[in-house]
Amino acid sequence: MRDEVFVYALSTCPWCRKAKQWFTDAQVPFEFVDVDRLKGEEQDAAAEKAYQLSGGRRYPVVVINGEVVTGHNPNRYLELLKSVG
Amino acid sequence: MTMADATRKDALRYLFEKVVGPLGYKFTPDEELADFLLEQEVKLEQDHGAPFCPCQGRTGARADDMKIVCPCIPFHREHFDKMRRCWCGLFVHKDVTDPDSLPQFPPDEA
């Protein structure tokens, strides 16, 4: 069963790095975007999307099978993943 | 990192220590993490004019953005006190010795 995982991250944020590393270590395929590395309208759109999802400006914002997790929270990731645990 | 960046990093460390101490916080004992975060803040200051939190996004609205200039503890005190650290983890409560044990959770779950 394949999980859909997307990570909104900032390149400056160690917790965002930890979140990406966690999914890599857990061998869960995921997509991500470092919002601060985007330019212009692309960056605005990604930041706005992360804001809509999380209701705030805190990163990382992790979307697992449509559910949103704000912050690096492995216990919550495990609850939401179907292929792990 | 240039010599000027390293000097600025040391200056931020000195200034922040003066501010967070009376708030009941200290630098994380994880020196590697503290170094990385301060380096990011030096870069953010160079690029965007202030040492913004490396783990929070700027909105472009000055009033909002000023609330995430490090150390941003006074603006998020209730939430950070519950986590016993600030959002990026540069600062922890004075009694914290193992910052890795502290969870990162959003305000609505606090």
How many distinct folded domains of chain B? 1
Which blocks of ≥5 consecutive residues of chain B have pLDDT under 50? none
Percent of residues in helices of chain B comes to: 40-55%
The parts of chain A where pLDDT drops under 50 for at least 5 residues are: none
Number of strands of chain B: 2
DSSP helical segment count of chain A: 3
Describe the protein:
The complex is a heterodimer of chains A (85) and B (110). With 85 residues, chain A is of the alpha+beta class. Chain A has one domain (5-80): Glutaredoxin. Chain A has helices at 14-25, 40-54, 74-80; strands spanning 5-9, 31-34, 61-64, 67-70. Chain A is globular. Chain A starts with a strand and ends in a 5-residue tail after the last helix. Chain B is mainly alpha-helical and 110 residues long. Chain B has a single domain, classed as Alpha-Beta Complex (Ferredoxin Thioredoxin Reductase), CATH 3.90.460.10. Chain B contains 4 helices and 2 strands, in the order H-E-H-H-H-E. In chain B, helix 1 (3-20) packs across helix 2 (31-48). The model of chain B has no long low-confidence stretch (mean pLDDT 93).
